[in-house]
Amino acid sequence: MEEIFGKFLEIPAATWIALALIVAFGVILALVTPKVKWNAKMLATGALCIAIGFVLSYIRLVHMPQGGSITPASMLPVMMFAYAYGFGPGILCGVAYGILQMFQDPYIVGWVQAALDYILPFGLLALVALFRKWDSPLNFSVGVIVAGVVRVICHVLSGVVYFADYAPEGMDPLVYSLGYNLTSVGVDALICAVIGFIPPVRRFARNLGARAKA
User: What predicted TM-score, i.e. pTM, was given to this entire model?
Assistant: First the structure.
């Protein structure tokens, strides 16, 4: 028993936090969206999308000094879940993913800044769900672009309010924040958009949504 207990102690705290958040995601999903016909499949899909996105977020092609990074489409799994199951569940999935990001690479100077850099931008990835009813083969791809732009806007606002001191002397904080975030989060969103336009990826997203409605 001592050996088994010792193995549990060796598990990193971040792993326990991730597991706890995934369980909490399922509980909150059931309580906050009672009209949604959620089931074990929906919960498993949400947990899997969060896990895949979280793993991809560790593959940093570029890591910026004041936070933010370029990854191989780490936001895309969360957006696929939102597209499949709707705006409400998508927000919860995105928020859970954003909280995980806070533990992974925290750069926090206040609660409002944390909301602008973690909670809101990832929660609003669910905006892709609003394009499901648009009768177009590009509805998912356009939704990915819109969600990515909204995430960039959240980070730009955070930069203007909380990180203006990092702007070079004489440079407008808005210009600095816009440039900083477009070259980090903007590129990250662009990668998601490009992948989202690949026909097999679009078909997978549409089929995932169709299976969710079945």
Answer: 0.80
